[in-house]
Amino acid sequence: MQRVRLDTAHGHILLSDPATRGEGSALLSKAETTAARYGLHHQVRSIEAVRYSDHRFNEEQQR
Fold it and tell me: Is 17 helix (H, G, I), strand (E, B) or coil?
């Protein structure tokens, strides 16, 4: 669980910089897969929230 939390936080940070966005997305995917494998549903929801938040932020920046 600790690894999933760390990867989620790290991925979230990486998403905030356009230069590392792809790396952040890949790290979140890895964390989400691990969380789902071990039944960590709360972590899966947290990762989905990070992705949703990032998506909304990017849409607003493009306006």
Answer: coil
